[in-house]
Design goal:
The protein folds into 3 domains: 204 residues, no CATH class; 191 residues, no CATH class; 140 residues, no CATH class. The protein contains 28 helices and 8 strands.
Length: 568
Amino acid sequence: MKADDYDLRKLLHGGDQFVVPVFQRYYVWERGDWQRLWDDILNLLEPDAPDEHFMGSLVCVQGQHQPGRVPHYIVIDGQQRLTTFGILLSALRDEATDSGLDDIAGEIADGYLTQPRRKGLERYRVVLRTRDRQTLFDLLDGEKNPDKLTRIGEAYHFFRREVAKYKSSDGADFTHLYATVTSRLPLVMIILTSENPFNIFETLNGTGQDLKESDLVRNFVFMNIPIEEQDEFDATQWEPMERSLDAVDGHAALSLTDFYRDYLMREGRYVPLSQVYVAFRREYGEKKTTPSDLCVSLSRHAQHYKNIWRSVEVKEPELRRELSYLARLGVTTAYPLVLHLLEEHHQQRLDTHELARCLRALQSFAIRRSITGESTRRYGRLFPAAIRELWPGEILATLVKYLDAQGWPADDRFVPDLVRFRLYTREGFITRLMLRALEEDIGHKEQVDVDGLLQQNKLQIEHVMPQGIGEDADGDAWRAMLGAEWDTVHQTYLHTLGNLTLTGYNPELSNHAYERKREEFAHSHLELTRQFVEWEVWDEAAIVKRADSLAKRVVALWPTSSGFEVNA
């Protein structure tokens, strides 16, 4: 190991190239990081400032030298700072150009950012991972309007604004600023002599304190690929797998760490969130798979994972509905089990109808336990453990048997609790799911997209007996209808299933008297709401009667274990 002090002039002004290998993470510095660096620079410009501000270490391994090629170093630690310096220098170059300081702009361009006599990748003094690479190259080559949606683009525009503000301030000296950036921000460059940079990286970052678990997983995979093959593997296999979980079409990005964790638990082994990387290494060693075969498996399961979170993309209507219902519940602890079931379906060991019944059983188990007050604390281990209990050819039957043994409330306990349960305030996800499913179960000739309308907030949950009973004429009408014990009735049944429906006119209906609401309900496109024309009075008896009626339909939709016969 060799350690020397370097400033940017010594580091980048020479003929060396710094390569961030594919196994490293992407550029992740944010506004707070950029602001701290800029504040440190501004402090150095003060009259009584210290001579320099130490920027930490840059850990590298010297690459294999080839005659006629640019000497290069593989960056093991410090790539975030190194990338930021490249972005900052690009901003300084462009501000110098705009100010007519062509000598400084040219010196930055040819002395710090690029090597003009070189071609291809050798032209650039800093080379990033493929996904960030082109954006940085555009900056180094003088592109002044990089994509603002990229982190690198955001950083560039941040520094352009800050440098421009400095230039317009009293006493600004651009030459002084340039000299400060290039000569007063020292680093310690540590050059390691090990032949295996991956092991060094793991030693520096393996605690997970600086990187996400998903970063460590990625790094571990690339440790097993020769450096000269990494770019192609990343571009053709790994990057498409990771990008498949990116945000798209209004769907939020899915967490890679959560996906890897659920993937690792797909065979029934529980993995703590903090142990994803360790578990990944263990499974990789046990299965003795290749990086390519691993990526094939991850890509297939990433598609399953997308189907769980974004069921709208699923082609089979029955399966799409059940995955959508499950997602509405938000029981993410069941997703390792669902991943396993979807893989069984993919391998044609579980047909679509039986898979749909398995998903409905999971819904019923979770809903009934929530309404009856059962704890969800064990779910993180309970659902993965179910995978080990499933028998080939009898997956539905063995799943139901396992769930029943964990405590699956029967009708005689579930129905009374549901009638009086404050559904709206205590289980918002279940409320929306129940009302949606009850409406969809009616079987319209022209089906209403209840789920889509709920997501767009074009449908809302309506309290028929309103949440507020005021001192106006509408309030008087409600008190008269509810009777002498109106306050008790209001407190007891306000948020229960019997008093809830769906409407697109929630603000307009507000706290109006029942007669006015009933007139509006009669024009609804939703059968669940239009049925209120049958109820002339809305009091305690009516709420309880409707709740009993809806509860019978709920137990038909989500039966207890005995309702999940294999041929049902």
